[in-house]
Structure to design on (393 residues):
């Protein structure tokens, strides 16, 4: 039996049938079950921060799983406290941390903080943005600005108001004394790597301050080095009330985090929230290995440098399909002049390069933070060959 037929026999059809099955990886490379090698410029969708089988993660996870894999939240453990201390230190502001297992769960925590904040002052509306993505659980889905993903699952928690991403005037009209919180991505991730107009996050901050609403910044995809900064909002000089993290934080091990800054970190009382697996010692050990490696190897600088190299190389490709290259760090969207992205993704794969058709007209690149210029120089010609094939050039 092939992988396809085995998958189709037992898996729910929510992902369709993926085109390949991966077997193992090493650094920026992965191999499928037929032995084909690929340069991985998807990085597990912005998750595999240190690439695959990174020795620091392997060592940290191996040591921790051999020592203590799970504790429950009835007790404390060293990796969890150390990780929370490290995140608060990186943030550089007084904050408290809740650990979850995923981005959606980190956002559920943020939404519960918003609810408590709102209930204290008689406000319940969450303001979010069109084309945003915050996760698949019902709470996170309720604030996800992609109607096709959201509407089949109505009724959802609310009230939620959506405004166009990046439109501060629309946001100003929507945020008032009924608003409990505004939730916003620093750059749309699933929406196609779309940065907002400059000053947008600072504008959101001012509107939240004026209205008394919490500002929740969803850094699930943008955080922990992806843009060449620990936090994308930090690089904008903005102080949110809540930041959510997941994806790259665990370098492939499941972990999410909700950071409540200042008063927002004081909203929960014992019993208000919890998770059996959230912040388990093995995922925390992996996350510490990620943070240590990013710091020790100056990966933030590398991400900025290699990301610019990648953006420049893509920008100088002579393909009639490319309309623009967007994004920052190792988090780029290549805009195409039509719905060619699935075909480009497929052609790139055939050339040994994994990229992601995040939107019909956009290819997303989110390679590991350890990616080098030499790997970019290897990947870009493969991408160019894929574009040429699709455009018939
Ligand atoms: N928030 C953002 C910005 C995301 O990009 C994602 C996932 O793509 C999520 C939340 C949901 O994360 P998860 O799939 O870990 O639940």
């Amino acid at each position: 039996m092939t992988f396809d037929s085995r998958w189709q026999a037992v898996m729910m059809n929510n992902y369709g049938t993926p085109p390949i099955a991966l077997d193992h990886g090493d650094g920026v490379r992965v191999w499928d079950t037929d032995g084909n090698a690929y340069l991985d410029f998807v990085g597990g969708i912005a998750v595999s921060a240190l690439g695959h089988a990174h020795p620091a993660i392997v060592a940290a996870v191996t040591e921790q799983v051999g020592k203590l894999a799970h504790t429950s939240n009835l007790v404390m453990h060293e990796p969890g406290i150390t990780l929370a201390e490290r995140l608060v230190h990186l943030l550089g502001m007084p904050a408290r941390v809740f650990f979850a297992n995923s981005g959606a769960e980190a956002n559920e925590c943020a939404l519960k903080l918003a609810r408590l904040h709102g209930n204290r002052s008689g406000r319940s509306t969450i303001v979010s943005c069109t084309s945003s993505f915050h996760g698949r659980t019902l709470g996170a889905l309720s604030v996800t600005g992609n109607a096709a993903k959201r509407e089949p699952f109505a009724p959802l928690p609310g009230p939620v108001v959506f405004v166009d991403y990046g439109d501060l005037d629309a946001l100003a009209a929507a945020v008032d004394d009924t608003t409990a919180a505004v939730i916003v991505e620093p750059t749309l991730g699933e929406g196609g790597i779309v940065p907002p107009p400059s000053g947008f996050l600072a504008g959101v901050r001012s509107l939240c301050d004026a209205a008394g609403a919490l500002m929740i910044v969803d850094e699930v995809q943008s955080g922990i080095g992806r843009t060449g900064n620990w936090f994308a909002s930090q690089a904008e000089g903005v102080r949110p009330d809540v930041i959510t993290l997941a994806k790259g934080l665990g370098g492939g091990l499941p972990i999410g985090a909700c950071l409540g800054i200042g008063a927002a970190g004081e909203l929960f009382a014992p019993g208000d929230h919890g998770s059996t697996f959230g912040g388990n010692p093995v995922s925390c050990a992996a996350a510490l290995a990620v943070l240590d490696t990013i710091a020790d190897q100056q990966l933030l600088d590398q991400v900025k440098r290699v990301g610019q190299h990648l953006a420049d190389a893509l920008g100088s490709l002579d393909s009639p399909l490319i309309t623009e290259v967007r994004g920052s760090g190792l988090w780029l969207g290549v805009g195409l002049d039509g719905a060619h992205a699935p075909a480009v993704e497929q052609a790139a794969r055939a050339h040994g390069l994994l990229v992601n058709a995040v939107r019909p007209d956009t290819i997303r690149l989110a390679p590991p933070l350890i990616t080098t210029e030499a790997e970019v120089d290897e990947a870009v010609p493969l991408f160019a060959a894929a574009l040429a094939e699709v455009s018939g050039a």
User: Anything to note?
Assistant: The first strand starts at residue 22 and ends at 26. The mean pLDDT is 97. The pocket of pyridoxal-5'-phosphate is lined by residues 102-104, 107, 133-135, 185, 189-190, 218, 220-221, 246 (CB under 6 Å). The chain has 14 helices and 15 strands.
